[in-house]
Amino acid sequence: MDNRIVITYGEDIWKMTRDVLKESGLGNLIPKGSSIGIKPNLAVAKPADSGATSSPVIVSALIEYLKEQGYDDIVILESSWIGDSTKRAYKVCGYEEISEKYNVPLFDVKQDSYTVKNFNGMDIEASDKVLSLDFLINIPVLKGHCQTLVTGALKNMKGCISDREKRRFHTRGLHKPIAYLNKIIKQNFILVDGMCGDLDFEEGGNPVQMNRIFCGTDPVLIDSYMADSIGYKPHEVEYINIANDIGVGSSDIDNAEIVVLNRDESIAKPSPSRKVQRLAQFTNAKDACSACYANLIRALSRLDDEDLLHRFKDNPVFIGQGFKGVKREGIGVGQCTSGISKNIGGCPPSTSAILDFLRNI
Ligand code: SF4
């Protein structure tokens, strides 16, 4: 599917996963008899609603889909970040139940042997188990990252190397080794958990309910779309640029084919995160859809980084279906607020579109 991204919005994780897999035709992309690896993001031992880890419901729905398509040689692989135990993460995140129910083994990459592979003069210790697979399905979480701005498909491959290599990645500045790793290990399909990723941190704690799942086959394109979804231009993320330049994939989201299967109609709920609550003070929301509201919160978070939030202190941003037909002065986001004097349309408008609009107010 290369330049195609299939996305759906909503709350029914099982159905959403099934829908995007069916539309993507994943079953036709995998050669028969392949050994398949599923690589979630279980960097830390925290459940998915913390905003840090991949939903076990997505993984279960994926495994059922693969089994229906006739694939039985499936393994789940991960190496949690340095200092956390992968086994503990499997347990806390609900993966032991998946393993039992579907008879799919859980592999701890920390216990594996490694082979040194080289790209462009850089040696990288890659997991032998991962290298032996025929087809790799990556399940990153749509979340921000304090060092690399976004953590997506390319960066999630850090769970496929030794802990020693992870340490070395940091001393090498992260971006170049992340991009180079993706020349050494190819991921074949990416299924993004965009249900409730963290605002800024790999380890969760400030989840933003974003209610979306999307998939594609180009990790650079997927990461570019992820960056855009949380308010960054793809070219602002250094490892996306490098990966694009060395031919891992394309960051050209302007020419991507985005297939939207379903709009989100669920109403945004208050977030337990203090940080998200603080950003919410700059909004005036009435029956805002979760995906739309999440895009606004992400945009406000970027404005906070740029020290521009004060502009909206006495001018909170109107959003939501409760403002349909309302005519008044102010700032409105989404087609429901088209009667507000300064408005950006869209249903929902993207984070980057909201950000550009609010920056120029
Ligand atoms: S514009 Fe209105 S209907 Fe559309 S996503 Fe936003 S709140 Fe929902």
Describe this structure in words.
This protein is α/β, with parallel strands linked by helices and 361 residues long. The protein has two domains: 4-260, LarA, N-terminal domain (Rossmann fold, 3-Layer(aba) Sandwich), CATH 3.40.50; 274-359, no CATH class. It is built from 14 helices and 16 strands. The chain has helices spanning 13-24, 26-29, 56-68, 86-92, 95-102, 128-132, 153-156, 163-171, 175-184, 219-229, 238-245, 274-280, 290-305, 351-359; strands at residues 4-9, 36-40, 74-78, 106-108, 114-119, 122-127, 135-139, 143-145, 149-151, 189-194, 212-216, 257-260, 283-285, 317-319, 328-333, 340-344. An eight-stranded mixed β-sheet has the order 4-3-2-7-10-11-1-12, with helices on both faces. A four-stranded parallel β-sheet has the order 13-14-15-16. Strands 5-6 form a two-stranded antiparallel sheet. The longest helix is centred in the C-terminal third of the chain and has 16 residues, at 290-305. The two termini are 38 Å apart.
Uncertain stretches: none
Mean pLDDT: 93
* Series of secondary-structure elements, N-terminal to C-terminal: EHHEHEHHEEEHEEEHHHEEHHEHEHEEEH
Rg, rounded, reads 20 Å
Shape: globular
The distinct ligands, each listed once, are: iron/sulfur cluster
Strand residue content: 15-25%
What top-tier CATH class of the largest domain fits best? Alpha Beta
Number of helices: 14
Taking the alpha carbons of the first and last residues, their distance comes to 38 Å
- The CATH architecture of the largest domain is 3-Layer(aba) Sandwich
Question: How many separate domains make up the residues?
Answer: 2
Tell me the major beta sheet. 8 strands, mixed
